[in-house]
């Protein structure tokens, strides 16, 4: 896949980016700083956050790190997300507040965090384009959109004479797959880079919750995630992962990460966690690229 450069002067998007959903919730500022420092040392070029992560605390931690480390503009891109409604006034307020927490004049990448009917309006799309045109945002994307929702917004952008969104960020792992063929085709047709998140399903695909939710884990701290994974379809996929792991000797996290990191059409995968070792295991999984093995993992 050709290198993805989100805007002039930005570094190319690497296969692994750093997610910050644990910041301010599962790890404190000092541990988050250590994780971001390690990410830079490993060559990661994008840090992803959101206004809703720990009620803005994650953005503040990323902003404090930016102020402390002062990475060159051509070295690190920071992406954040705003929540609906996407009325012009709400977009303006949310963008201003996120920029304030990050301590930046311009947000590198701004996503709509989830689909909402207010995204499919000329007012919303024109408001977003004004942010980009005036330099307050450098690139625009959407997150958690299905193919039908993305197609409707792209059609409206085209009708308004606006450029299409640059990125799509969706959940994609062996248990829950929100990047289907329709999404891939749509993004390829409009030159939209696909970024995926939760390659380990919040820890579900490590197998550690098979006997019940582990205390202090993501599913314990944020129980709303449980319903996404604790269902018969995901259990079957987890069982297949465990079977292949036992047969091949590859640990379950290694297999799950390798599958996510080598998905066709995916430009980058967000890796989060509580320490540098989470990034290191993802980089190790880059070395396992076995289509036959991946097909076996998918065969349930």
CATH homologous superfamily identity: NADP-dependent oxidoreductase domain
Compute the number of strand runs.
8
Separate helix tally: 12
Tell me the distance between the termini: 28 Å
CATH topology: TIM Barrel
SSE run = EHEHEHEHEHEHEHHHHEHH
Structural class: alpha/beta
| CATH architecture title | Alpha-Beta Barrel
- Radius of gyration of CA atoms, rounded to a whole number: 19 Å
User: Please, how many domains?
Assistant: 1
* CATH class annotation: Alpha Beta
Order of strands side by side in the largest beta sheet? 1-2-3-4-5-6-7-8
Average pLDDT confidence is 96
Largest sheet: 8 strands, parallel, barrel
Helix content: 40-55%
Q: How would you sum up the global shape?
A: globular
Parts with pLDDT < 50 across at least 5 consecutive residues: none
Strand residue percentage: 5-15%
Question: Could you name the key traits of this structure?
Answer:
300 residues; globular; single chain; TIM Barrel; alpha/beta
Note down, in words, how this protein is organized:
The chain is α/β, with parallel strands linked by helices. It has a single domain (16-298), classed as TIM Barrel (Alpha-Beta Barrel). It has helices spanning 29-41, 57-69, 88-102, 122-133, 147-160, 181-189, 218-221, 226-229, 232-248, 252-261, 276-285, 291-298, and strands at 16-19, 46-48, 77-82, 107-112, 137-143, 167-171, 193-197, 266-271. The protein has an 8-stranded parallel barrel, surrounded by 4 helices. The longest helix has 17 residues, at 232-248. The protein is globular. The model has no long low-confidence stretch (mean pLDDT 96).
């Amino acid at each position: 896949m050709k290198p993805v450069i989100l805007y002039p002067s930005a570094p190319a998007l690497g296969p692994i980016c750093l997610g910050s959903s644990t910041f301010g919730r599962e790890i404190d500022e000092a541990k988050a700083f250590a994780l971001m420092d390690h990410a830079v040392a490993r060559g990661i070029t994008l840090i992803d956050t959101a206004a809703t992560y720990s009620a803005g605390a994650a953005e503040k931690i990323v902003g404090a790190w930016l102020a402390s480390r002062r990475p060159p503009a051509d070295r690190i891109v920071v992406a954040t997300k705003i929540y609906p409604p996407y009325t012009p006034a709400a977009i303006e307020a949310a963008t201003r507040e996120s920029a304030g927490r990050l301590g930046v004049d311009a947000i590198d990448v701004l996503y709509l965090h989830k689909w909402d009917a207010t995204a499919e309006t000329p007012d919303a799309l024109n408001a977003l384009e004004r942010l980009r045109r005036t330099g307050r945002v450098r690139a625009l994307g959407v997150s958690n959109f299905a193919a039908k929702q993305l197609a409707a917004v792209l059609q409206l952008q085209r009708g308004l004479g606006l450029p299409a969104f640059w990125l799509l960020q969706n959940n994609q792992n062996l248990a829950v797959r929100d990047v289907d063929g329709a999404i891939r085709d749509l993004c390829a047709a409009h030159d939209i880079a696909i970024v995926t998140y939760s390659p380990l399903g919040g820890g579900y695909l490590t197998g550690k919750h098979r006997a019940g939710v582990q205390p202090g884990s993501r599913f314990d701290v944020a129980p709303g995630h449980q319903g996404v994974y604790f269902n018969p379809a995901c259990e079957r996929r987890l069982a297949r992962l465990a079977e292949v792991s036992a047969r091949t000797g590859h640990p379950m996290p290694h297999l799950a990460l390798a599958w996510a990191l080598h998905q066709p059409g995916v430009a980058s995968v967000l890796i989060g966690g509580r320490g540098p070792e989470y990034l290191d295991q993802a980089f190790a999984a880059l070395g396992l690229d076995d289509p036959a093995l991946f097909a076996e993992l998918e065969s349930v």
